Amino acid sequence: MKARVKLVDGMMFVGESGSGHAVVMDGAPEYGGRNLGIRPMEMLLIGLGGCTAFDVVQILRKGREDVTDCDVEVSGERAETGPKVFTSIHIEYRVKGRNLASAKVERAIELSKEKYCSASIMLGAVAKITHNWTVVEDAA
User: Fold this and answer.
1) Which helix (H) or strand (E) holds 60?
2) Looking at the predicted structure, is the pLDDT value of residue 2 above 80?
């Protein structure tokens, strides 16, 4: 797996993945940025959210659960002084589907946290990660 990050202007960078996808990152104005892109540390939270959401949906679908939506909100607290690592992270899952088994949703989240989500396991080495979840019935 590879990635490339290139300075564009001021404190704006374009990150390109090895698979050819790109994202703009920029700093806050007080750091010379123009606030035209996502912050690099926000990217870590998004990556964590995407990694665990992917796991949870995949595990549930392999278990023949009828998942129709998955919304994950990730919030993090950082250390006051540098390096300003994440000290705590909270993940809130909202899984929507038809006749979802709550126990299976809980188990999928635990498997993601403990076994499959590389981002969660890596960030969990320095930050306390907590989570909660809600199952929503899809009436459609």
Assistant:
1) helix 40-62
2) yes
Q: How many Cβ atoms are within 10 Å of 74's Cβ, its own excluded? A: 23
As a whole number, mean pLDDT of residues 71-85 equals 97
- Amino acid sitting at position 71: D
Task: Give CA torsion, residues 32, 37, 41, 42, to 10 deg.
Answer: 140
Q: Which residues contact 58 (CB under 8 A, 6 or more apart)?
A: none
Antiparallel, parallel or unpaired: β 86-98 and 128-137: parallel
102-111 and 40-62 are packed helices; what angle lies between their axes, rounded to 10 degrees? 130
pLDDT tens, position by position, 98-126: 999 999 999 999 999 999 999 999 999 99
Query: Cβ distance 88 to 127 under 8 Å?
Result: yes
CB atoms within 10 A of CB 127: 20
- Report residue 55 as tokens: 């796991």
